[in-house]
Amino acid sequence: MVTIKAPIYHAPLACMSSSMQVDHPLSSLRQKSSILTKEIMSFICQKDCYLKEFHTKVVSCSPSKLKIAVNGKKEVVSGFDVICEDTVLFPEGGGQPDDRGTMNGHEVLRITRVSDKAVHFMKEALEPGTEVHQIVDWSRRFDHMQQHSGQHLVTAIADEKYGWPTTSWDLGREKSFIELDTPKISNEQLEQLEKDVNEAIRKCLPMMPRWVEVGSEELQKVRTRGLPEDHVGLVRIVEIESIEANMCCGTHVSNLSHLQMIKLISAEKGKKNKTNLYYVAGDRVLKYLAASIEVEKKLNKLLKCGQDEYAQAVEKQQKTLKATNKSNLLLLREIAVLEGQRYLNQPNRDVIFCLHRKEGDSEFLNMVANEIGSQNALMLLSVGDEKTSGLFLIAGPEEVVAVVGPKVEEALKGKGSFKNGRYQGKASQLCNRPTAENILREHADKRKVET
Ligand SMILES: [Zn+2]
Question: What range(s) does the Threonyl/alanyl tRNA synthetase SAD domain occupy (predicted)?
């Protein structure tokens, strides 16, 4: 049974501009509008999606600028907009990102569609009339073809069998998703949909683009969201034999067998009662599997077990960690009390009390201070790395703390604040504790602290 169906008509303008210019009943209308004629175009990359190289001629070249990410940072690059008679490099459209490649050995950094023209942005100028040899970055392009054709197949089966129309899709760098108009997809449904999709791939069905006229009987069979009002020319349809036909300007595989396999990864809650179906197709399935195997190897080593026992092993470790943290906390509190008492029990104790511990937190510092009492000493307490960063607390007679606090903060290259009679904060140079202690001592000498 042949079901001609087009559940999605994404990127209408891009699809329209992919149509070919022909004489048909609307040609008189076309002549009346220059805008309309500009919308009609089809590039060689859309006619032969497997063409990797092409010879053509430069039509125009003008200085331009482009904002691109260079080593993760957005930069404005100066270059040229080069337009050729035709192009084997696909400009973005139909949800598919643009190609990368070279022209006469120079890198093409971006290809955009402006009206019926494909604009190649390059750092180098190519004079009009120059013969150019275009080469497509085939691994990027073929990956896009597999993900895009995979989307058409999943969209068709999800709509036909389950009644979930596709409302949008996104071709991601690692995985892509299809937004389906359904609030939920169960695990069983996801599993069955994946089986159905892969069964279609095993049938090695041809997938070819063709062009049909507006108003033709054939086009009537293709379900679309309608053509834009200003559309003229032929309409490009991509058909998966016996499954669906879809208006689209993108580049596609010529046979479903070229998809190799589709893995549905997850169905996640999307916007407004919709579900985002994440998937990978073709070579990405192998990459995904290779990455998962790498993770598995690392976890086998770390958890000392096979993947069947991961959950159990992690659960056990989490329980142990929780118990250890609880025990550490209790011990730290006990140490805080003991440190305080040890100081108070010294027969001729110094009015200055300095204590540093590598382990501890703000609570530990406050517990030591509480144990000693603000009238019994002027305290500089700290935790963290002895030489670099950590936490500090100054406690003692409130009026002294208020004065020495900012000075100690400066000495320790820290940031803190005075609150409830104590000055506490973060320090970045705990190695300066001797200087901080001297500051405390100077002020303690000026003022009699009760001991
Ligand atoms: Zn498409």
Answer: 235-278
Rounded to the nearest angstrom, the distance between the alpha carbon of 65 and the centre of ligand 1 is 30
Residues with CB under 5 A from ligand 1 (ion): 94, 248, 250
At 132, give phi and psi (nearest 5°). Answer: -125, 145
Residues 6+ apart with CB under 8 A from 115: 17, 38, 39, 41
28 pLDDT more than 60: no
C-alpha 16 – ligand 1 centre gap (Å): 12
Long-range contacts of 32-38 (CB under 8 A, 24+ apart): 33/230, 35/230, 36/230, 36/232, 37/116, 37/232, 38/115, 38/116
Residue-wise DSSP of 79-113:
EEEEEESS-SSPPSBTTBPPP-EEETTEEEEEEEE
From residue 425, give the alpha-carbon distance in Å to each of 96, 369, 397, 419. 52, 15, 18, 10
What phi, psi does 190 have (nearest 5°)? -65, -45
Measure 237 CA to ligand 1 centroid, in angstroms: 9
Edge-to-edge strand ranges of the sheet holding 378-384: 352-357, 378-384, 390-395, 422-427, 414-419
Encoded tokens for 274: 């919709």
Ligand 1 centroid, distance to 336 Cα (angstroms): 67
Whole-structure pTM value: 0.73
48 CA from centroid of ligand 1 (Å): 16
**CB neighbours of 99 closer than 8 A, spacing ≥ 6?**
45, 89, 90, 91, 108, 111, 136, 137, 140, 141, 144
| Alpha carbon distance 385, 309 (integer Å) | 37
Tell me which H or E stretch contains 278.
strand 275-281
State pLDDT tens for residues 153-209: 999 999 999 999 999 999 999 999 999 999 999 999 999 999 999 999 999 999 999
Q: Is the pLDDT of residue 35 over 50?
A: no
> Using an 8 Å Cβ cutoff, are 244 and 160 in contact?
yes
In terms of average pLDDT, the best of 29-38, 63-72, 420-429 is 420-429
Distance 136 CA to ligand 1 centre (A): 20
